[in-house]
Design goal:
The complex is a heterodimer of chains A (479) and B (170).
Chain A: H1 2-7, E1 9-12, E2 15-18, E3 30-32, H2 36-39, H3 44-53, E4 63-73, E5 75-84, E6 89-90, E7 102-111, H4 112-115, H5 119-129, H6 144-160, H7 188-194, E8 207-216, H8 219-225, E9 231-238, H9 241-261, E10 274-275, H10 279-313, E11 319-326, E12 328-337, E13 340-349, E14 352-353, E15 372-375, E16 383-388, H11 391-396, E17 399-400, H12 410-416, H13 419-428, E18 432-435, H14 438-443, H15 452-462, E19 465-478
Parallel strand pairs in A: 3-4, 18-19
Antiparallel strand pairs in A: 1-2, 2-3, 4-5, 5-13, 6-10, 7-9, 7-11, 8-9, 8-19, 12-13, 14-17, 15-16, 16-19
Chain B: E1 15-17, E2 26-28, E3 30-33, E4 39-45, H1 48-63, E5 73-81, H2 84-102, E6 104-113, E7 124-134, E8 148-149, E9 155-158, E10 162-169
Antiparallel strand pairs in B: 1-2, 3-4, 4-10, 5-7, 6-7, 8-10, 9-10
The chains are: A alpha+beta (479), B alpha+beta (170).
Chain lengths: 479, 170
């Protein structure tokens, strides 16, 4: 760690710079937003990846890493970079395979006391209602035409099909459907993978969780978000499933050839990219938007089935959508650079948009305060709701962290923990867990993640987004 | 990327015998390397075909314990690419695709590369026979879902043996 630390320049207590020259070809410096404690957990490879991104054409200001940053492929996880429209690029390495992996938070009108005695029952029912895990397929049997609609209209299509409510849409980033989808850029393979998986949670770190609001940090904003202490909330974390994975795989192949065609030097093959405005870039963007919309439809359908379960076991209960955020996506946004408003392609890979009140993208309901920024914890640790601040635009192109961030590899976790022990330890803490495989519980043990509170504090202290509420898990359904 | 040329050690990843050696030296078919969030492996082979077959085994073992799979059915894969690296990337991606769309798990991978093509075509062709069976959620021991094959640190080297290095997004 010492060698690495020498190369990082401390800007303030939560900001470290990777100077130009850290590796050859850097066009801008890197910025890693971590506390001194979290800095110790950043692997050298992560810093290399921040530096690699800084070499890409048209990058603006900095190649950035959020406080939960860890080693990824291409960009680090927690990586943020913006590229100018005129001379920049778009890269699937800055989005990831799980396009629009994201988080949705539902608030109930229920107090924890009314739900806790029935937590096992509810969790069993949710586990049944929402297919999850490896090898599982969905309850929804979408036709090819419906799949196309999901790619084009996302959550809007889901509402038209009877899933969820119209008002939900204004409580999703991009209203649950991003413009620019081009279904012609979705291969037959991506369709074949995506069709049976619409309405499935997936596996790995994806989950559906029943939570209790444990602490309120900002009463006024919490009220705006409809949150109160002791309240039951539901969090859904998943993405675009096989559809998104295949869309990324297909376009990565094309873009790998594009770097040769356009003579772009890349330090990592996963940073394959194409100049903005080129057919390869347009095609990737059109395909990526389809995957993003699929993911919004997916979370919408899962939320609908969650509502059905609650209605069945607690009749009259109401689950409203607080917000739905994407944390793996590339977006066209306007930001101020050198005093001018410019159009940028902002890549967020494992980073959450955190817009403040002055941004028109923030829905009317939250315009007075800023957008809800939803940060999931690990199975045993707290999740947070923050409120985006205007300062985020200037600091991070309006981006915050996306979770706790792993510190231990899966193979190490399997060696160190046993799924049954993890489950028993969580039970002792009053957390009920259901998973399709015990091995998965070991891989996802709370100890493999950084403390979520430390990560969120950096975002709060920098003024990117401020803490509003902390939720603790009561019941977790894992894939 | 540095690949070990020959490893004379027992390894949980599974050993194979190299034909042609007088005493049948032991070779590691594949090995997993440390990676914080994802899965990284190296697969070896005395031929390109063998390396590609071992890489497929390494990938699939991440998802399902091969000891729980019987090769009752077979699937054929035909692919072509301008170079070995692209072909290897397509091959491994194809296995994930087949797993999801066929709802099947695989345990044997027989790979053949076409060597008698016209060299002016500059196209490499792969033909593979994959053995496995349909998913049985009660019998098959599932591990980690592999979302995709990344190109991060992806590479193929030839020293004494062929070696491929792969990072999987899980």
């Amino acid at each position: 760690m010492d060698d690495i630390s020498k190369n990082l320049k401390k800007i303030d207590d939560n900001t470290y710079e990777v100077p130009i020259g850290y590796r050859p070809g850097m066009r801008v410096p890197g910025r890693i937003f971590v506390s001194s404690q979290l800095r110790e957990m950043v692997e050298p490879g992560t810093i290399d990846q921040v530096a690699n991104v800084a070499t890409l054409p048209g990058i603006v200001k900095y190649s950035m890493a959020m406080p939960d940053a860890h080693l990824g492929y291409g960009f680090p996880i927690g990586g943020v970079a913006a590229f100018r429209e005129e001379d920049g690029i778009i890269s699937p390495g800055g989005v990831g395979f799980d396009i629009n992996c994201g988080v949705r938070l539902l608030r109930s009108d229920l107090e924890a006391g009314a739900v806790q005695p029935r937590i096992n029952l509810l969790l069993d029912a949710l586990f049944q209602a929402v297919p999850s895990g490896l090898g599982a397929t969905g309850r929804l049997h979408a036709t090819d035409a419906q799949l196309t609609e999901a790619f084009i209209s996302g959550a809007k299509w889901a509402v038209e099909e009877g899933y969820g409510e119209k008002d939900d849409l204004t409580h999703c980033e991009e209203n649950g459907h991003m413009a620019g989808a081009d279904p012609a850029q979705v291969s037959v393979k991506a369709r074949k993978r995506g069709r049976p998986q619409l309405g499935t949670l997936g596996s790995g770190n994806h989950f559906l969780e029943i939570q209790k609001v444990e602490e309120i940090y900002d009463e006024a904003v919490a009220k705006k978000f409809g949150l109160f202490k002791g309240q039951i909330t539901i969090m859904i974390h998943c993405g675009s499933r096989g559809a998104g994975h295949q869309i990324c795989t297909d376009h990565l192949d094309v873009l790998s050839r594009a770097v040769k065609k356009y003579n772009i030097a890349i330090p990592d093959k996963q940073l394959a990219c194409a100049p903005l405005g080129s057919p390869e870039a347009d095609n990737y963007f059109g395909g990526m938007v389809c995957a993003a919309n699929y993911a919004w439809a997916n979370r919408h359908i899962i939320a609908h089935w969650t509502r059905e379960v609650f209605e069945r076991y607690i009749p009259g209960s109401k689950l409203d959508l607080v917000y739905d955020v994407a944390h793996n996506v590339a977006k066209i946004e306007e930001h101020e650079v050198d005093g001018k408003r410019v159009k940028l392609y902002v890549h967020r890979k494992g980073a959450t948009r955190a817009f403040g009140p002055s941004r028109r993208e923030v829905p009317d309901a939250y315009r007075a305060v800023g957008q809800p920024v939803i940060i999931p914890g690990s199975m045993g640790t707290s999740s947070y709701v923050l409120c985006g601040c205007d300062r985020s635009s200037e600091l991070t192109f309006g981006s915050a962290c996306h979770g706790a961030g792993r510190v231990m590899s899966r193979s190490q976790a399997i060696k160190q923990f046993k799924g049954t022990d993890v489950k028993a330890a969580l039970n002792m803490l009053g957390i009920v867990v259901k998973a399709s495989s015990p091995g998965m519980l070991a891989e996802e043990a709370p100890q493999v993640y950084k403390p979520s509170g430390d990560v969120v504090d950096v975002v709060h202290n920098l003024g990117i987004a401020t803490k509003v509420a902390r939720m603790v898990p009561l019941g977790v359904s894992k894939g | 990327m540095r690949c070990k040329s020959l490893a004379i050690a027992s390894n949980q990843s599974g050993n194979v015998l190299i034909p042609g050696s007088s005493h049948y030296a032991q070779m590691i078919a594949f090995e997993y390397l440390e990676h914080t969030a994802d899965v990284m492996f190296r697969a070896y082979g005395s031929t390109q075909e063998e390396m590609l077959s071992h890489a497929a085994s390494a990938l699939f073992k991440t998802m399902v314990d091969p000891a729980t799979i019987a090769a009752r059915e077979s699937w054929t894969v035909e692919l072509e690419a301008p170079d070995l690296e692209s072909l290897a990337y397509q091959w491994l991606s194809e296995i994930i695709y087949l797993f999801e769309t066929e709802s099947a798990v695989f345990s044997t991978f027989r790979v053949r590369l076409n060597n008698d093509q016209d060299p002016s075509e500059e196209i490499l062709k792969l033909h593979a026979e994959i053995g496995g069976e349909r998913i049985d959620l009660h019998r098959h021991a599932f591990g980690t879902e592999v979302k995709a094959v990344t190109r991060h640190k992806f590479g193929i080297r030839k020293n004494d043996l062929w070696c491929i290095q792969v990072v999987l997004d899980v």
